[in-house]
From TrEMBL:
Cofactor list: cob(II)alamin; [4Fe-4S] cluster
A Gene Ontology BP annotation from the UniProt entry: tRNA queuosine(34) biosynthetic process
Stated role: Catalyzes the conversion of epoxyqueuosine (oQ) to queuosine (Q), which is a hypermodified base found in the wobble positions of tRNA(Asp), tRNA(Asn), tRNA(His) and tRNA(Tyr).
Coiled coil ranges: none
Protein name: Epoxyqueuosine reductase
Pfam families: Fer4_16 (PF13484), QueG_DUF1730 (PF08331)
Record domain 4Fe-4S ferredoxin-type: where: 176-204
Assembly notes: Monomer.
Family statement drawn from the similarity comment of this UniProt entry: Belongs to the QueG family.
GO cellular component: cytoplasm
Length: 307
């Protein structure tokens, strides 16, 4: 067995030990297919006020500009599908935000994975990325065979659906590379038909500036009045295009205790949300991604949902 295969097998086994759903590896280099797509998307203003999407255009497309002598992109998926969901008829938050902020949870696992690689193999340089640096997570995960990019622009897997986080290690080590998988969306348009704000403007293309997640998390201004009545009670994020996706029939509950919700979260009624105080907000969303909006932002969203 050559070293590349041995190292790759070791990395995948370690990823599994650390609780990752799956791990795929691709050769670091320029993402030729994504470059014109990203440029067109930005030119058309599909990113709304997410100005940061315009930054580091070259680095987004080429990991060798992020990590010296980068050879491989190790893509990892971590399940966050919850065992229990919120009470019906309440204001809703995206399932990924039920537990502790994934950035911290995954970063720790990635650090441990890199440490294991260095202990086993020797001097390996690299960096861990969790959705907060200019890396096209979904493109790399698809390139390494972990799934295909669906019509809702999420990474989809036949085995586990799409309720998972994507992260990567970019390292200066030659490995055995995985091949891409095929697209299994077929003629299905469930996500396009179900999107409350018609943000999926054509198959595989999202207008980010029309997405409920954008309005409730990224947008700092007032939510445009023409969107009133279209949010389907989503107060933070939105899962509609994932909830209706047939492949998510195969989602299984995660086994990461840190992603379990605060005991009070699932039972909050609309009245509870309406009356939420700073103390309750801090207690229920301690270390949660929901803290991004602060209480003030959450209240803005809830007020917008009222008839």
């Amino acid at each position: 067995m050559d070293n590349r295969k041995r190292y790759s097998d070791f990395i995948k086994a370690e990823a599994k030990r650390l609780g990752f759903l799956s791990c795929g590896i691709s050769k670091a280099g320029f993402l030729e297919e994504e470059a014109p797509r990203l440029e067109k998307w930005l030119k058309e203003g599909r990113h709304g006020q997410m100005q940061y999407m315009e930054n580091y255009f070259d680095k987004r497309l080429d990991p060798t500009l992020l990590v010296d002598d980068a050879k491989s992109v190790v893509s990892l998926l971590l399940n966050y599908y919850p065992e229990e969901k919120q009470t019906e008829g309440s204001y809703k938050i995206s399932k990924y935000a039920y537990g502790q902020d994934y950035h911290f949870v995954i970063k720790e696992k990635l650090k441990e994975l890199l440490h294991s690689i260095q202990q086993e193999i020797g001097e390996v340089g690299g960096r861990a990325f969790v959705d907060s640096a200019p890396v096209l997570d979904k493109a790399w995960a698809a390139k390494s065979g972990l799934g295909w990019i669906g019509k809702n622009s999420n990474l989809l897997s036949k085995q586990v659906g799409s309720f998972f986080f994507i992260a990567e290690l970019i390292i200066d080590l030659d490995l055995e590379y995985d091949g891409v998988t095929t697209d299994h969306c077929g003629s299905c348009t469930a996500c396009i038909d179900a999107c409350p704000t018609q943000a999926i403007i054509e198959p595989y293309v999202i207008d980010g500036s029309k997405c409920i997640s954008y309005f409730t998390i990224e947008l700092k201004d007032n939510i445009p009045t023409e969107m009133r009545g279209k949010f389907d009670d989503w107060a933070f994020g939105c899962d509609v295009c994932q909830d209706v996706c047939p492949w998510n029939r195969f989602s299984k509950p995660h086994r990461e205790p840190l992603f379990n919700p605060h005991p009070d979260l699932l039972s909050l009624t609309k009245k509870d949300w309406d009356e939420i105080t700073e103390d309750t907000f801090r207690a229920v969303f301690k270390n949660s991604a929901v803290k991004r909006t602060k209480l003030e932002g959450l209240k803005r969203n809830i007020n917008f949902l009222k008839p």
